[in-house]
């Protein structure tokens, strides 16, 4: 009997954590922003909206500036969701 209760409590806890993490995510991320990162995500890892560029040249110039400033290689890519250009690692 006690094994069943422990199992039910464990399952309820797991369901609650999954619900909470999909709703609120990490600190600094607003409700409703996706925790699933991928090409279609339009938020950064901190939950801020990605900067969109109209042309590849604008995005490439920004990528060069960020590479020089931060020392990490950045590149421009065209988004498969919005067809605009973004800068990423």
Supply the key terms:
elongated, two-stranded antiparallel sheet, about 90 residues, single chain, about 10% strand, mainly alpha
Report the radius of gyration as a whole number of Å.
19 Å
Strand order of the largest sheet: 1-2
Silhouette: elongated
Which regions are unreliable across 5 or more consecutive residues at pLDDT < 50? Answer: 30-35
Major sheet summary line: 2 strands, antiparallel
Distance between the termini: 52 Å
Q: Count the beta strands.
A: 2
Commentary on this structure:
The protein is mainly α. It is built from two helices and two strands, in the order ααββ. It has one domain (2-28, 43-88). Strands 1-2 form a two-stranded antiparallel sheet. A hairpin with a 6-residue loop joins strand 1 and strand 2. The longest helix has 22 residues, at 2-23. It is elongated.
Topology:
Layout lengths: L1 H22 L32 H15 L4 E4 L6 E4 L1
Antiparallel strand pairs: 1-2
Quick description:
With 89 residues, the protein is mainly alpha-helical. It has helices at 2-23, 56-70, and strands spanning 75-78, 85-88.
């Amino acid at each position: 009997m006690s094994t069943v209760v422990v199992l039910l409590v464990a399952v309820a806890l797991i369901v609650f954590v999954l619900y909470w993490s999909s709703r609120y995510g990490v600190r600094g991320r607003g409700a409703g922003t996706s925790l699933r990162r991928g090409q279609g995500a339009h938020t950064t890892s901190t939950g801020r909206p990605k900067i969109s560029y109209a042309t590849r040249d604008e995005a490439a110039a920004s990528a060069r500036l960020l590479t020089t400033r931060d020392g990490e290689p950045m590149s421009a890519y065209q988004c498969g969701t919005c067809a605009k250009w973004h800068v990423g690692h």
